[in-house]
Amino acid sequence: MTKVSPFAPAHFPDLPVVGGVRLAVAAAGIRYRDRNDLLLAEFDRGTSVAGVFTRSQTAAAPVQWCRDAIGQGQARALVVNAGNANAFTGTDGPVVVETTVSATTHLFNCRPSQVLVASTGVIGEPLPVDRLTAALPDLHLRLGEADWQAAARTIATTDTFAKGAGCRVEIEGTPVAIAGIAKGSGMIAPDMATMLAFIFTDASITAPALQTILAAATARSFNCITVDGDTSTNDTVLMFATGSAGPRSFDDPADPKLAAFRAGVDAVCLDLAQQVVRDGEGVSKFVSITITGAQDADSARHIGLTVANSPLVKTAIAGSDANWGRIVAAVGRAGEWIDRDRLAIRIGGVLITEDGGPLPDYDETPVAEHMRGREIAIEIDVGVSDGSATVWTGDLTHGYIDINADYRS
Amino acid sequence: MTKVSPFAPAHFPDLPVVGGVRLAVAAAGIRYRDRNDLLLAEFDRGTSVAGVFTRSQTAAAPVQWCRDAIGQGQARALVVNAGNANAFTGTDGPVVVETTVSATTHLFNCRPSQVLVASTGVIGEPLPVDRLTAALPDLHLRLGEADWQAAARTIATTDTFAKGAGCRVEIEGTPVAIAGIAKGSGMIAPDMATMLAFIFTDASITAPALQTILAAATARSFNCITVDGDTSTNDTVLMFATGSAGPRSFDDPADPKLAAFRAGVDAVCLDLAQQVVRDGEGVSKFVSITITGAQDADSARHIGLTVANSPLVKTAIAGSDANWGRIVAAVGRAGEWIDRDRLAIRIGGVLITEDGGPLPDYDETPVAEHMRGREIAIEIDVGVSDGSATVWTGDLTHGYIDINADYRS
Q1: CATH number reported for the structural domain that contains residue B232 in this entry
Q2: In whole angstroms, what is the distance from residue B268 CA to residue B201 CA?
Q3: Which of A153, A271, B245, B356 is 20 to 30 Å apart from A368, CA to CA?
Q4: Is A194 tagged catalytic?
Q5: Range A351-390 burial, b when 16+ CB lie within 10 A, else e
Q6: Are strands B344-347 and B286-294 parallel, antiparallel or unpaired?
Q7: Does the keyword Amino-acid biosynthesis apply (chains A, B) (predicted)?
């Protein structure tokens, strides 16, 4: 039995009601026994949809379906199952998706492209789609006001706590709600731990504008986290805008009137992404790594992720060891433009290096104290320009080995 | 106290005498107490030198020195210390190198560029060069026939066994010796990791030809291994050809008369590289990953290393879990050209996948049996062309965490 992450929140957050969204969950027995594993969401007619997906070349069948479907920009239903990823399932994969979509279109009297699907779980095993479709009619009858916590629990696999985030913002004086749920804990690990995130709002935004806003938020949140560097076959972020709150439809993602809305989406994505890291498999410390002085933001992010994925840096953090030499080595192998002799590394706010070496009077005492804490802050200025990025990760512990050395068995 | 790797050989190999090479070792007390930490090698006049180095942008001062020095192509002495990497030591770094080189040139009455230096150990601490130079005169007096095992032990850091390999070949009927030593067990990844290797021969080869032969051998050996994906600041492979065996000097690296010599260098490099993996920190299984059907050899190597560096694949292997789904995911995220629906994955020679899914009658029994062994063979055909490569790695175990969570303290 996996222990609950030490970073689990005391309770699930209080998320707003999102007009135009109805949910239901069920125990379809796809893999698990005695727990819910199937989520159905219904959206009002006219709901816009946007999505960001894994770049894996072994992407799962549901990911391929959603990539095509969001091109139409409209959503009426979302079907998510946990326990089986429907990934690397050969010709059976698309058949399972089409069977699911077909059963759903009958219930909602909608077009196939208006049905989005997502799966997470074991790779390479056929998904028993008959159990899924058998559960749909009853789910459809039970659709109602969103129980976000139940929904978040339903899509979880190795997660040790349910992940939700939300906020209320205003657009032209009209209150608008944003609520999101996510799952993932082996970052984005290719077995039972894919990252799925679903964000819902009652704002009225066209699909192309929603896509731009979601992609920007994802770049600064879900794409800036790593637990173990393993991108999954099923990673999916979908956002739905029902429009039920009005005040009117927006089609310019850069519209100044949407500033608070964009900030709200950013905040919800970042909160969910950080929760995924805080539930990282075996994590005992939460680490933020901020890179400044890089060629541009992409370069900064790549340097940050190289440091964040270094097993030597991650194990040093697990051991509360202020081993900044491993940070230097990781920065050096990132392959980005840096100036070794202008590297400025700070841990817990304490400057450690300058002029290509440690400060002459470097005192490790406050840094060692910081390293013994649970929240670790690393800042690295690489000294060449003004690109910056922050990434988040956890440490690499015995717990990670415990979870992953015999997860499947 | 770290346990000796289960893959340690029963005894150090019997390496040939290499004419024109004299060695001595000493306990200079640079960091360690009660063990040798300083190696001095003397080469006959006219010895050619070649080198391959880390591509890290935070490369250490001795690496920068050697990169320049081998441009002259001649070597008279090699000085290697363990315990301190002289990396990220600011302006002090080059001063330490120059002081070491200067003291050595006085002993050998040679030019600075004829002195090669290498360091391994902690990053970012000043190297007490006075202890190093104080030990040199006595070392110089004690130079004699190579004790390869003592030399290999002297340059070790976290290694659990001394690494050596050698062979005898003929060039135009003349016997020629090749002997090599290496160190490394963590921070190991292509582009030379925290790995030092020194290869010695009494063949007569010009420096440019030696460079070509060494670079080719390195591409197939040291650059095809990974323990933790962490390239280091100090990785160095140097090769010295004293010419004392004759029969005459060769300047064409592709000369057919050097075929056996090239094969010998390849074999020695591969043997040493595999020993580094077999001594990987915490390794309990030795894994070979062969990629075929890729766009080209570089693409194949990149796919292989992505699989080899996946923490999820490595932990599955540690747990003897035939979790080929994680292999599919790692292949997918490598970003190389592959055909998901033609992936053919074999473990222990047993075909597992075809047509984008597992074989309909896949029987895990023999694969599970193979996974319980100590030597794991994974073969992956990615189905697009005929590029191939083999890479080697170990598993990711609790032992790795133990070693690295408090290495420095």
Answers
A1: 3.60.70.12
A2: 11
A3: A271
A4: yes
A5: ebbbebbbeeeeeeeebeebbeeeebbbbbbbbeeebbbb
A6: unpaired
A7: yes
Average pLDDT, integer, range A164-178:
96
B88 backbone φψ class: left, alpha, beta (φ>0; ψ -120 to 50): left
More confident residue, B400 or A241: A241
pLDDT bucket at A188, cuts 50 / 70 / 90: very low
Q: Are residues B264 and B329 in the same domain?
A: no
The answer, for A223 touching chain B at a CB cutoff of 8 Å, is no
Q: Inter-chain contact A398–B400, Cβ cutoff 8 Å?
A: no
Q: A41 and A172, same structural domain? A: yes
d(CA B282, CA B186): 9
Are A62 and A187 contained in the same domain? yes
Q: Identify whether B16 is part of a domain.
A: no
What residues pair up with A49 in beta bridges, in sequence order? A240
Residues of chain B in contact with residue A340, where contact means CB-CB under 8 angstroms, are 57-59, 88
Is B5 inside a domain boundary? no
Q: How many domains is chain A built from?
A: 2
Q: Which residues numbered 21-80 in A keep a CB inside 8 Å of some CB on B?
A: 54-59
For residue B190, the model assigns a pLDDT of: 38
* Mean per-residue pLDDT over chain B, rounded: 92
For residue B256, the model assigns a pLDDT of 97
- The yes-or-no verdict on residue A184 having pLDDT over 90 is no
Average pLDDT over residues A70-76: 96
Q: Which of A188, A248, A199, A177 is nearest to A224 (CA)?
A: A188
Asked if B187 and B291 sit in the same domain, the reply is no
Residues A161 and A218 in one domain: yes
**Helical pair B297-309 and B324-333, crossing angle rounded to 10 deg:** 130
Using the predicted structure, report yes or no on whether residue A223 has a pLDDT greater than 80: yes
Q: What is the pLDDT of residue B192?
A: 35
Among B278, B309, B343, identify where a domain stops: B278
Q: What is the overall mean pLDDT for chain A?
A: 92
* pLDDT of B406: 66
A16 in a domain, yes or no?
no
Q: Is B343 on the interface with A (CB under 8 A)?
A: yes
Whether residues B297 and B258 share a domain: the answer is: no
The per-type count for chain A, helices as H runs and strands as E runs, is 11, 17
Asked whether residue B194 is marked as a ligand-binding residue, the answer is yes
Which residue has 């003004």 as its token pair? Answer: A386
Does the bond joining B247 to the residue before it have cis omega, within 30 degrees of 0?
Answer: yes
Q: What CATH number does residue B341 fall under?
A: 3.10.20.340
Judge whether B11 lies within some domain.
Answer: no
State mean pLDDT over B260-277.
95
| Same domain (yes/no): A248, A301 | no
Q: Mean pLDDT lowest for which of A346-355, B100-109, B228-237, B377-386? A: B228-237
**Per the annotation, does B157 bind a ligand?**
yes
- A406 has pLDDT over 60: yes
Count of A-B CB contacts under 8 Å: 246
Q: Which of A136-150, A176-190, B138-152, B157-171 has the least mean pLDDT?
A: A176-190
A355 touches B at CB < 8 Å: yes
**By the CB < 8 Å criterion, does B319 face chain A?**
yes
Domain boundary among B250, B278, B306: B278
State mean pLDDT over A342-362: 94
Cβ B228–A311 below 8 Å, yes or no? yes
Residue of B31, B55, B58, B331 best to disrupt the A interface, most CBs of A under 10 A: B58
Range of the domain at A141: 21-278
Judged against a pLDDT cut of 50, whether residue B193 lies above it is answered with: no
Pair (A203, A303) in one structural domain: no
Query: What share of chain B in percent tops pLDDT 70?
Result: 95
